[in-house]
Task: structure prediction
Amino acid sequence: MSMFQISRRADYAVRIMIELGLHGEEATVPVRQIARRTGVPKAFLHKITADLVKADLVETFAGPGGGVALGRPLNKINMLQIIEAADGPICLNICLVSPHECPLDQICSAHTTWGRLQTILTQELEAATLAKLVDEARQYRKMPNTNPDVPYLSLVGQPRNGSQSF
Result:
């Protein structure tokens, strides 16, 4: 079974940004420390950081005191910006790219549902500022969230990675 999900690259980008946010808006954090604390492989971290630099979300500094620092205040960065820096624009269906991209968009009953879902998703990601994520991360480090209000997907008994179970 395949799943509709964000990429590992986007997940890593969010982890990196939260880690930087935990150090404060003015701090420069060594790449080695970011890799160790986030679990992002160092080579992959460099590639993702380059994407975050292009989006003006972080800055990099070379040399002995170098590393990575936030490029904007925490409240001026949101999850949508981070994910789009890593993966490009979010689009749930090709029919939402532009009017008439899909020849059926004016007669397809799913088209408006895709549009509503796209709007809800982007609004939620925009509302999730790095400031909010960092505040939650600080709370969870003090007291882990053992009973989150998260609708987990149960894959028990389901085939994984497109394979079939017999």
